[in-house]
């Protein structure tokens, strides 16, 4: 099984950041056709949009996984729409996205990779859906503005060092009603 990277000009090379062809808003299609054959977009490849000057991304429900470093270093990314259907977010997928402040992860998400949202200094809040079963270490490392994490997980599991150690940041963890004692364990 392979993958296909396709860009507006028909080439396999993305426009360089800052070029007139670079897009600020990207809507990823859920399917496309090439030579009469239809393909479903079910994965965003490793490094797919790494370090581009994009401000907005809409990811459709056909996408099941987001690869390592997929949006790493997209400093201007401030609007992120993740549709239900995504099962896993890879290592460092949205790290170093300096303009993101808050967004919700979709129901159905199961795994969040190592430092997936690390070093996002403007990120103030995040909501983790009830379907998550695995969170790798340091997911929110160096997110110094992160003041609120809402977890919808009713049966919590051990997570190694979610945010790192930043004594100047006080983060509130909101949990489902009646689960406080489970989280304290």
Protein model, in words:
The longest helix is centred in the last third of the chain and has 5 residues, at 180-184. A 5-stranded parallel beta sheet has the order 4-6-8-10-12, with no helix packed on it. The chain is mostly beta strands and 185 residues long. It is globular. The protein is 3% helix and 23% strand. Strand 2 and strand 3 (37-40) form a beta hairpin. The model is unreliable at 1-12 (pLDDT under 50). The protein has one helix spanning 180-184, and strands at 25-27, 31-34, 37-40, 43-44, 56-59, 65-66, 79-82, 88-89, 102-104, 111-112, 125-128, 134-135, 148-151, 172-174.
Structure summary:
The chain has one helix spanning 180-184, and strands at residues 25-27, 31-34, 37-40, 43-44, 56-59, 65-66, 79-82, 88-89, 102-104, 111-112, 125-128, 134-135, 148-151, 172-174.
């Amino acid at each position: 099984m392979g993958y296909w990277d396709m860009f507006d000009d028909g080439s396999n090379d993305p426009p360089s950041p800052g070029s007139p062809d670079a897009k600020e808003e990207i809507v990823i299609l859920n399917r496309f056709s090439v030579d009469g054959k239809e393909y479903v977009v079910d994965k965003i490849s490793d490094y797919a949009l790494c370090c581009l000057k994009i401000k907005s991304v809409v990811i459709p429900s056909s996408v099941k996984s987001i690869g390592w470093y997929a949006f790493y270093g997209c400093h201007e990314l401030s609007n992120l729409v993740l549709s239900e259907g995504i099962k896993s977010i890879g290592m460092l997928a949205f790290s170093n996205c300096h303009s993101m402040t808050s967004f919700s992860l979709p129901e159905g998400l199961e795994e969040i990779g190592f430092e997936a949202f690390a070093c996002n200094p403007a990120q103030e809040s995040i909501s983790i859906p009830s379907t998550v079963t695995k969170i790798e270490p340091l997911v929110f490392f160096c997110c110094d503005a992160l003041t609120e994490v809402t977890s919808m997980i009713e049966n919590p599991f051990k997570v190694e060092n979610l945010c790192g150690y930043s004594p100047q940041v006080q983060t509130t963890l909101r949990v489902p009603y009646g689960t406080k004692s489970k989280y304290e364990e």
